[in-house]
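Notes from hallway chat w/ T.B., transcribed later so I don't forget. T.B. wanted the structure written out for a chain they're using in a teaching module, and asked if we could keep both sequence and structure tokens in one place. Agreed to drop them here.
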Amino acid sequence: MKNHNLLLVDDDRHLLDSMAAWLREQGYTVFIADSCRQAREQIASHPLDLVLADVRLNDGDGFEVLAWCRQHHPDLTVVLITGYGTVETGIEALRAGAFDLLTKPLIDEELAMAIERALSQKKVIEENQKLKAQLDLRFGLENIVGHDHRMQRVFDTIDRIADTRATVLITGESGTGKSLLARAIHRRSSRRNQSFVEVACGAMPETLLESELFGHAAGSFTGAVGEKIGKFTKADKGTIFLDEIGTSSPSLQVKLLRVLQEFEFEPVGSTTTIRVDSRVILATNEDLTRAVAEGRFRQDLYYRINVIAIELPPLRERISDIPLLAEHFLARTREETGKKCEGFSEEALSAMQRYRWPGNVRELQNVVERAVLLGRTNIVTPEDFPPQMCAGAAAVNLEPLTGKALKDAMEAPERAIILEVLRVNHWNRTQTADALGINRTTLYKKMKRLGLEEPRGMLAK
């Protein structure tokens, strides 16, 4: 049994009954209708896989059935049938959204093949949609790696707010992954099949930025030879990501405030008001509260965009995530280049965890790619890292050795590293020991020797 539901629509009752009988013999469940009205009723009453409709009906035509299906059941496949087939009719049918146009008289084999083609394509489309939905849910955060407790809070926030229209403000230093996070939010929302439009607000002058965001009318300024559609319009029903929003000018901030309040605007040089349904995500590496205090950023706009605030911590405060991220970038580089690299030496991992990473995750990715591509062995060692990185890692608060014993000199960077990890983990000793790769007893001894005591009010664990 083929176990598919078909609807036949034709006002020739004899042909309708005979075709339905033959298709039932082939194992299909067949419903029939002899008019547009009956077709709409049958489509509304039964779950269908395919509609085969004659172009000429007593109360309309098959194109009306097709249009109704496109509007009310866009996933339903429709095949049109005509006794007056022409090239023009075929083109019109395909443009209107029909899967195929068959010409009477129909040969049984021809009809069977057309139905199989239509149902096969429908199955492929459904499988692709299902797979894409699974990938969106599973891999919406595939490029954002982290076990750090603050990153886990970020992931939890994304899960809770992704499928809302709430404006999101992402803050964090350059290179922490704000763009990746914005894309993850979009992919985990119901807007995932619509456009994701990214605008780097700090990369263009104010005059061009306003035109880029809102579009412009022809002749609105020198060089505007034609009409331009803005990014907000392109992001209608989807998501627009405004990066480096802290660099926007006062006049642009006024226009942005109106868009976020009313979701409408006028293109540059135009009096036509455009309304959009866009999810807005913004990002900045600036301290907007300071910008507001200094008068560089509008307070009302800050309150408007700060509905959902997500802060991405710098990599130097996520020391426990560095090995995980490094392995992630190593696997990706290995896959893209075909280079055979098995992993990192202990010394390499230690050097990466001591380094301050001013370029954050982006810098780590570049360092790993460089080490894999230029490395002489199948294990990454500190010698494969940029010289300034090794020097920076070795120089963490390291004072000159002159006049000091080696043991005393080594205590300074050790104390700095342990203190930093303690602060990152809110003085939780268990988490700190795990991040440093030592047991709790060793950590207690080192804290006592180095004079590290937790602040009052902090709970030791």
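Follow-up for T.B.: The chain has 19 helices and 16 strands. Might be a good example for the class.
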